[in-house]
Structure formats: structure tokens, C-alpha cells
Amino acid sequence: MDLTTRIEPTQEWKGTKITFDPDSSPKAWEYYKHVYGDLCCDYDLNNICFFEYVDKGEYKGNYTTEFSSGKSGSRLYALKKDAFPLDENGMYYPACLRLSGETDFNFNDYKIRIFKDYLRNGEDLNLLASCSDKHHTLVNFSLMQTVGNMQALKSKGLSIGNGRYEWADRLDSFVYILDQYFKDRNDGTSLLILNAGLNANLLKNYLSQFKDAYEYCNSVYLIDDDLIDRLLANGSKPLSCENVAKEYLLLANEFWKQKASAW
């Protein structure tokens, strides 16, 4: 399996061509099943499904595994094995723990423009272009718990005051925020818990399988403690200068190297 091949969004699922978010597509799930079989043994990785919010009808406020035609950016999920359906056909569920894919280092067009504002020389810009080539590749995909909205927290990133956030979708800052949570799990002011809303307890339940941010990153991202230290150091800093931006690119490349080697 080539971890650097670009994963295209349009793929076939059960005989139908569907536009997926690449990190939660059928091809991504083939990779996840190889990588996360032991870590995610409580989740049904062999029966991935759609899981869309129902906004009307008998099951309003719950979720359906039925595909919504005409929707772009579809996502596939693995439900916890003890998830119990609301109907005899197994098509409707309440909110429950479930995993989906996440793009680790986000180098889409918008993020590229953000980083270009801080990079000054041609060598750094070439490094940025190289990083963007890995944006939708398997080596840049990992599983993340959906309940508790960690994806949205990662996208928001560091708080920069007055209710504003960076919105740079930085993995290093996500790891820093995760580390802050683990250092005081009972702190109700944790960004992780505040962002989880009504699902905070479900998210805590999921994260309880890890003793700290290091174990989380070792298990989910397949990286060593030295790289985690570097992620934490850079992730605590706002994206406000060339040094932070360049270090982020170097971190991304080391991350992909370690992840590919571990797999």
C-alpha cells in the first residue's frame, strides 16, 4: 500500500460512485483497518457506515446509516460495537461513540495562503509546496473520535483572545490542547471539554483509555516522544512569525517519516 498516493474524493461504495471526504473514504478505511485493528478493537471496523443527523420525521434528533444522495463530502464511520440501534433494521441510532478519519496536517489552499504570509525565502516556499502534496495522502490520515467534536477544536486551534481562534487547523496546537486536558482532566475550563458541549462525558470516556497526550500520540499517530515534545513546544505558540511557520513544516515532514516507518 503506497502511503503517498493522493486519495481522490470520488470512489465506489457498494456499486455507487460517491464523493467522499478523502480521509473518511473507503480507501482510507482500508488503511485504517490495517493500522488500528488492535487499538480500536471495541469499534466495528469491518462494518463502516454513513452516520448522518436526522432533522425531521420519527427519528428526528438521532442519526441514520442511510446514504443521503446528492450530498458531497460524505463520510464513513466505525461505531462502537455496543452501539444499539433504535429500529429493528439497524438504520437509526442515538448519538454514540464513533470513529472517523481526520487529515493530520491540513495544507489545503486556504491554509497554504495562511503559511505563505509568514514564509520569506524560496527554500521555505518549496518546503510548503512539498507539504501540500501530502495533504490528501494516507500517511497524513488518522482516526479521531467524532463525539465531542475534536475535529472542530483542532480546526479552531489556539485561542488568541476576545473569543477569537487561529483557525489554522494545526496538529501541533491540537496536541498542545490535548496535553493541557490530560494534565488536569477535572478542569471544566479545558478547551477540549468546553468544545465538547453535551457530549463531554462521552469524550472523557473515550480519552480515559490513554494515560496522557504522549500515549495518545504514540497510539494514534505512531510517533515517538521526542517528536511529541517538539509538537507541544511549537503548538503552544501562536502562528505569528516565520520561525513558528517553518518549524511546523519541519514537524510535518518528520511526522510523516515516523508514521510511514511505524506502519
Question: Number of helical segments?
Answer: 10
User: Main beta sheet, described?
Assistant: 3 strands, antiparallel
Percentage of residues in DSSP E strands:
5-15%
Describe the strand arrangement of the main beta sheet, using strand numbers.
3-4-6
* Number of β-strand runs: 10
| Mean pLDDT level | 94
Inertia-based shape: globular
End-to-end distance? 10 Å
Q: How would you explain this protein's 3D organization?
A:
With 263 residues, the chain is α+β, with helices and mostly antiparallel strands. Helix 3 runs parallel beside helix 10. The protein folds into two domains: 91 residues, no CATH class; 160 residues, no CATH class.
Describe the SSE topology:
Layout: E1 10-13, E2 16-19, H1 26-36, E3 52-53, E4 63-64, E5 78-79, E6 92-93, E7 98-103, H2 109-116, H3 122-133, E8 141-145, H4 150-156, E9 159-161, E10 164-165, H5 171-183, H6 191-196, H7 200-207, H8 213-220, H9 225-235, H10 242-262
Antiparallel strand pairs: 1-2, 3-4, 4-6, 5-7, 7-8, 9-10
Helix pairs in contact: 2-3, 3-10, 5-9, 9-10
